[in-house]
Amino acid sequence: MWRCVSRKWKKIIDDCPSLWSTIVVTNRNKHVKFQLENSKAAPLNIQILTNYASSNRDESWIQLLVDNAYRWKSLRLVAYPENIVQRLVSSPSMLDSLEIQFISIPDDCRLFSLIRPNLRKLVLLDATFPHDFDPELGLEELFLHSAHESRATRGRIKLSVSKFHQFIQANPKLRILHLHGHLTASPNDNDLQSVNLPKLEDVTISNSQVLHLFRSDYCAKVRFEVYSVIERPQPLAWTTPVHTLRRVGRFKITVGNKYLRVTAMTGPYKVQVSLDTGVPSYGLVYSMLEDFLNEAEKDTHISARVELELFADKPTDNDFDPRLDVLKLFQTPVWDPSSDQNRWRIPNLDTISMLDPGLPYHRLQAFIQARSNGNYIRPASPITGVFTQSTPSTRKHRKEVLDKVMTCSVEGNDS
Q1: How many alpha carbons lie under 13 Å from residue 234 in its C-beta half-sphere?
Q2: Would you place residue 70 in the very low, low, confident or very high pLDDT band (cuts 50, 70, 90)?
Q3: Cβ-proximal residues to 361 (8 Å cutoff; 6+ apart), any chain
Q4: At 288, which helix (H) or strand (E)?
Q5: Gap between the Cα atoms of 400 and 382, Å rounded
Q6: Rounded CA gap, 285 and 167, in Å?
Q7: pTM beyond cutoff 0.70
Q8: What is the largest CA-CA distance in the chain?
Q9: How many CA atoms lie within 13 A of 212 on its CB side?
């Protein structure tokens, strides 16, 4: 469009190779030759969006594209380019990024053997690859979105937990790892060992079955968002987020009837863990919180300031209050080898928020006083705020009740 403004604009655009370096292959490809000429020596981003193969069409542009394979920088496939792959003789030496969407990769595919030496980024979006596919690719970035495997006996199945494990085990230099979608599990998955990914910087996972299969001590961005958690994730699932939380200034723990959330509130490191059971399952939420706290206290405590949000509801038909169970977890002493003394879990817990009407004030008072007690146990930092709010989302209108809690003298919330 801008080429039609004036001759000056046309010349400027035609003399800018980077503007012509993205070549989109569709059913009409007369532009390919023109773009290859105008892109000069610039690296090429190739996008093949449709299956164009036909004996009645002019396919001279295919050979032109193959002749410039040494300039390919990235390749995006929404249709498998059989005609192009057959003509490739040597490896596209510059190609380091491959994205495959909505297609099945043939069992006898030559593509990966050609691009394997330099590939650094792989994206599989609702794509299907052979079960015996070798994932040893030297990857630094891996994105698996609803990926599938093809098996001779079972046909097309969701990506298996064991295949995901093969991917990360074969690519120990991963910096970015994203996994979305359901996986196929098997009894042998329990034997899989955790893989150390020392260079991992950014991880996003939406499946609780694999959270324990990798670990990283220096990840800058951790995002676990899992819905419909059925089973308690293995304790190693918390290793990576806990190591990142050790480097933040403040984070919050939110406990509901059917979810547990751990969120970093200050940067530059980011942690967002949200494990949702789908239906009220306080026992599962409680066990996940206990595993998190155990991992957080391993070796040394977390120095960050912590806010606790108790958004679980008290059942109306019995005296059991799950929020008191949560407080008991924070009132459990742990051994601190650095001071050779017992101390409280999460020593820098400083704020508690609850849904109205909140816990009985005398219970909160006992909890706060116990954590500040220095007899036999190293005292924790003081609680500086206790709040109540009508719903989890009405944080702006929450009420400060710490003074009432500390001055109450009778059971209940009437001081």
Answers
A1: 16
A2: very high
A3: 401, 404, 405, 408, 412, 413, 415
A4: helix 282-296
A5: 16
A6: 30
A7: yes
A8: 91
A9: 16
